[in-house]
C-alpha cells in the first residue's frame, strides 16, 4: 500500500452550536423551526453541536437526535458536559463529547502541558494577516489569534473567519465571522456590505429585509448585550 494512500490533516470548520435550556422537546422544536424558516437553505442538513451546560435534567438522546434530524439538523457532538457519568454515557452511545472554550475534564495526560506551551508561543505571532487576492466562492480563510484584512472582494459562498477583528475593503458577499474563539470585543469592518451572514463570538445575524439599509454601505459590526449591531461607519 502506498505511503500516501491515507492523508490526515487538521481542518477548521464553522459549526453552529445550539445551547439547550430547561424547556420541553416540543417547545425547543417550535423555536428552532422559527429560526430555520428565516433561512431554510442555510440550515438544511447543517451539522450542529448541542451544548448542555445549562441543562439540569436528563435527556432522551435518541429522541432529541431524531427530532433534530426531522427538522434538518445533524447532531455531530455534544459540548458543555461537566458530568463524568453523562460523558461516559454519551461516548458509549456513539456521540462525541467536545471541548468548547475553557471547559475541560480533569486528565493526567501530558497533552495539557503541551497545549499550554503552544498557547504561550501564539502570543508572539503576528497580530494581523493581510489577504490581497479575491476570495472565491467555496474558499474559507481562517487565521488563529490575528486580525484579518481583506484588500479585495469576497464572493458569495466564501467564508472569512478570525479569532479577532475582520476588515474587508472590497465587496463582502460571503459569510464573515469574527471573535471565533469567543472574544466579544471583536468587530467587523466592511466598505461594501453584501454579506449572507455575519457573526461575532458565536452570535450571528442573517441579513434580511430589515438590514437592507446597510447593503453596499460602509459599516462596522459589533456585539452589544449579546446582540449584533450594525452601524454606518
> What integer is the average pLDDT?
78
- Approximately what portion of the residues adopt beta-strand conformation? 25-35%
Q: Main beta sheet, described?
A: 6 strands, mixed
Low-pLDDT windows of residues = 102-125
Report on the architecture of this protein:
This protein has 233 residues and is of the alpha/beta class. It has five helices and 15 strands. The chain has helices at residues 25-38, 40-43, 61-70, 84-92, 111-122; strands spanning 16-19, 46-51, 73-79, 97-98, 128-131, 140-143, 147-150, 159-162, 166-172, 175-178, 188-193, 197-200, 203-206, 219-224, 227-232. The strands form three sheets. The protein has a six-stranded mixed sheet with strand order 5-7-9-11-14-15, with no helix packed on it. It has a five-stranded mixed sheet with strand order 6-8-10-12-13, with no helix packed on it. Strands 1-2-3-4 form a four-stranded parallel sheet. The longest helix is centred in the first third of the chain and has 14 residues, at 25-38. It is globular. The termini are far apart. Residues 102-125 have low confidence and may be disordered.
What is shown here, in short?
The chain is α/β, with parallel strands linked by helices and 233 residues long.
Amino acid at each position: 500500500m502506498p505511503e500516501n494512500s491515507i492523508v490526515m490533516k487538521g481542518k477548521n470548520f464553522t459549526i453552529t452550536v445550539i445551547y439547550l435550556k430547561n424547556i420541553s422537546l416540543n417547545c425547543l422544536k417550535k423555536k428552532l423551526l422559527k429560526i430555520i424558516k428565516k433561512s431554510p437553505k442555510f440550515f438544511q442538513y447543517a451539522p450542529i453541536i448541542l451544548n448542555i451546560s445549562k441543562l439540569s435534567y436528563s435527556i432522551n438522546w435518541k429522541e432529541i437526535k431524531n427530532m433534530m434530524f426531522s427538522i434538518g439538523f445533524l447532531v455531530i457532538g455534544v459540548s458543555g458536559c461537566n458530568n463524568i457519568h453523562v460523558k461516559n454515557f454519551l461516548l458509549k452511545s456513539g456521540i462525541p463529547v467536545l471541548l468548547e472554550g475553557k471547559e475541560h475534564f480533569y486528565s493526567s495526560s501530558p497533552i495539557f502541558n503541551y497545549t499550554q506551551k503552544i498557547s504561550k508561543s501564539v502570543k508572539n505571532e503576528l497580530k494581523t494577516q493581510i489577504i490581497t487576492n479575491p476570495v472565491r466562492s467555496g474558499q474559507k480563510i481562517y487565521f488563529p489569534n490575528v486580525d484579518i484584512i481583506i484588500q479585495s472582494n469576497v464572493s458569495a459562498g466564501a467564508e472569512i473567519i478570525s479569532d479577532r477583528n475582520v476588515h474587508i475593503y472590497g465587496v463582502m458577499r460571503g459569510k464573515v465571522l469574527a471573535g471565533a474563539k469567543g472574544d466579544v470585543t471583536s468587530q467587523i469592518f466592511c466598505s461594501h456590505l453584501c454579506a449572507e451572514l455575519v457573526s461575532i463570538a458565536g452570535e450571528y445575524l442573517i441579513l434580511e429585509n430589515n438590514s437592507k439599509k446597510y447593503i453596499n454601505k460602509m459599516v462596522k459590526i459589533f456585539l452589544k448585550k449579546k446582540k449584533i449591531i450594525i452601524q454606518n461607519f
